[in-house]
Amino acid sequence: MEQKKYWDDVSDQKQFTTPFQADAFCKYVNSSSRILDVGCGYGRTLDELYQMGFHNLIGIDFSKGMIIRGQTQFPYLDLRVKESGPIDLPAESVDAVILFAVLTCIRENAEQEALISDIKRVLKPNGILYVNDFLLNTDERNLTRYQKFQEKYDNYGVFQLPDGAVCRHHDEVWIKELLSDFKQEMYENLTFTTMNGHRSNGFCYIGRRII
To answer: How much is the pTM?
Structure first.
């Protein structure tokens, strides 16, 4: 709950900068597809898709502040507050799911597994899952904070920012295990700029729901 309050408090301030790999996404998803953005923030990725001609879009986020900002900034998008519990959509009801810098906000393995399982539920057979997120780094700044917070959070790679946000950088082995129920179509290692202006290792993954 403290994380929800954090994102509500900063909803008017944060500018997300990690680039959406639109060309890669469009190789697997067409403009008529029903697309769900889980953890959509203020809707910037959905707006990018909208401007490209994708109009069957839904965004959900647990931060009411983020959703209000998005509804104001992009009033033509269908943005919804996600309450606790499963995604409020029927099984096999969407063609593609976007998970963009969401896993970094979920520190527990079990919570990540539950989310991926629910995403699999709402995806149609052969539906596409697109994931962008952050990997472990080896620079001194990151190594220091991984070690500092490892005992507190019992998970190497989880750390707390000075403003209170708790984030996670991932072991690549864990990512592959987490997404193992999907058929991998693409995986690329990338370098991203974080929301606070630092550089970080990251990845882009596209997988297909196995029938």
So the answer is: 0.91
